[in-house]
Amino acid sequence: MINLSPPLQQKLQMLEMLASSGLSTYGLTVSSGCGPTMMVEGRECINFISNSYLGFSMHPQVIEAACQAARKYGIGIGGSPLACGTTELHLRLAEIIARTYGKQEALVFATGYQALTGMLSGLLTGKDLALVDNLDHRSIIDGCKLAGCRIRSFVHNNSEDLRRLVESTSSHQGHRLLIVDSVYSMDGDIAPLPEINDICRPAGVTVCIDEAHSLGILGRSGKGLLEHFDLPDGADVVAGTFSKFAGAVGGFCAADSQVIELLRMQASPFVFSASLPPAIVAAVTTSFELLEREPHWRRQLWDNVHFVLEGLHEMGYDTGASRTPVIPVMIRDTEKVLRMNRALLDEGVYASAVVHPGVPLRQERIRLGVMASHTREQLTRALEAFQRVGRRFDVIS
Question: Going by DSSP bridges, is the β-strand pair 237-241/352-354 parallel, antiparallel, or unpaired?
Answer without folding.
Answer: unpaired
